[in-house]
Specification:
Layout (H helix, E strand, L loop, with lengths): L3 H13 L7 H13 L3 H10 L2 H6 L4 H7 L3 H9 L4
Helix pairs in contact: 1-2, 3-6
Length: about 80
Amino acid sequence: MVDVKKTQKIINERKKAHINDPDIEKKYWIPLLNALGEDEDDIIKYLESLDDDIASWFSEVYEEVIAKFPSDKMEKVFHRINMM
């Protein structure tokens, strides 16, 4: 199950971080991936429900999400919400 509150918190913190923060992966990307959970269908539903502002932040972890869930369904959701 996607931890919606946690993903929102991580994204809000990421918005405030410096673009060249050397710890982006450790502070934001890994926690964001963990907050998405393990259920691909839940993640797809969540990503499809996001507004553009929030969805755009998932582009940073696109490759990691696709590596974790290498399916056509996941690829399509990223295409649909214009994150590639």
